[in-house]
Design goal:
Blueprint: H1 2-25, E1 40-43, E2 46-49, E3 54-59, E4 63-68, H2 74-83, E5 90-93, E6 96-100, H3 106-143, H4 149-182
Helix pairs in contact: 1-3, 1-4, 3-4
Length: 184
Amino acid sequence: MQNLIQELKLKMQKSIDSLIVDFNKIRTGRAHPSILDGIKVDYYGNPTQISQTANITVEEGRTLAISPWDKSLVSHIEKAILKSDLGLNPNTSGGLIRVTMPVLTEETRQEFIKQARSEAENARVAIRNIRRDANNQSKESQKSGEISEDDLRRLEDEVQKVTDKFIEVVDSELKKKEADLLEI
């Protein structure tokens, strides 16, 4: 019984972790190196995250400075950023690439909030699916005689409590992201 709950918590935590990664890809008005996590550059024939090929620092709150370890990657990184759907324009001077985050308009803020809400709903659905699978597994255990009907009820209650906690985390993360996007 405890193994089922532990497994349930691990799977639901992975959904939360995935949500946070997805939220980090949604750009705010401030610069943060994680915004580039979804962008890959060809590094010796392998698609590699920019953060694994360069040093990324934040300058003046709204500018990212990207300093590739291999100077031959400058043009590749620049092209990868331009091709991404983040709407960023890199400026290169020597071996340093600067990416200034454009100021968000009210329209783009609302679009990003919609995107964040969609990601949060996807996480809620994933958590509910995990709950359903755990409940089905519990019912199978009860049918095979491994647990009693009372144990099944207790287990279903525990699964619901864990689910509710993780849904609260999703809602909390969404509120933080919305506040971050609305901040001027």
